[in-house]
């Protein structure tokens, strides 16, 4: 069983805390360039994680590529728990599942229930720790930050 989710990371995202003298607004110096990268991950109940970083929008093709990668990693059937994003319910994804019978079974979470998906904690940790520690100046660097 795996829990999966996707997230976006932006260079101008506000994360962490800062300080300023009393009565002064804190300022954080940033480059004027705005860029982003996207990540998708799956986590097991034991804490093992599989992930990918991609550019552009989250589409059925991106998700099917991720399913292909998971399919290659396991020699037994996978139960994948995902949210109800329209991509997860798309015709292309349903076709992929039909073409790979018994390999991956999707289980959809309720309409809005982020607290039921442990992979949301991965997203929160990524955003809380990556950007303050990163000095990425462009999307290529942001995508490669460990």
Structure characterization notes:
This protein has a five-stranded mixed beta sheet with strand order 3-2-1-4-5, with helices on both faces. The radius of gyration is 18 Å and the shape is elongated. The model has no long low-confidence stretch (mean pLDDT 82). α1 (60-73) packs parallel to α2 (91-99). The protein is α/β, with parallel strands linked by helices and 146 residues long. The longest helix has 15 residues, at 119-133. It has four helices and five strands; from the N terminus they run βββαβαβαα. A hairpin with a 5-residue loop joins β2 (36-43) and β3. It is 30% helix and 23% strand.
Supply the helix-strand structural class: alpha/beta
Question: Order of strands across the biggest sheet?
Answer: 3-2-1-4-5
Number of helices: 4
Largest sheet: 5 strands, mixed
The radius of gyration over CA amounts to 18 Å
SSE series: EEEHEHEHH
**Care to count the β-strands?**
5
Low-confidence stretches are none
Strand content: 15-25%
The protein's oligomeric status is single chain
Mean of pLDDT: 82
Using the alpha-carbon principal axes, give the shape: elongated
Distance between the termini: 26 Å
């Amino acid at each position: 069983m795996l829990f999966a989710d996707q997230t976006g990371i932006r260079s101008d995202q506000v994360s962490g805390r800062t300080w300023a003298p009393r009565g002064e607004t804190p300022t954080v110096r940033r480059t004027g360039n705005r860029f982003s990268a996207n990540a998708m991950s799956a986590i097991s109940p034991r804490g093992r994680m599989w992930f990918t970083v991609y550019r552009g929008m989250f589409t059925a093709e991106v998700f099917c590529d991720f399913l292909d990668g998971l399919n290659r990693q396991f020699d037994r059937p996978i139960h994948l728990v995902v949210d109800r994003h329209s991509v997860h319910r798309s015709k292309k994804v349903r076709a992929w599942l039909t073409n790979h019978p018994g390999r991956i079974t999707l289980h959809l979470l309720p309409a809005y229930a982020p607290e039921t998906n442990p992979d949301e904690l991965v997203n929160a940790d990524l955003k809380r720790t990556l950007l303050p520690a990163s000095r990425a100046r462009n999307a290529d660097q942001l995508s490669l930050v460990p």
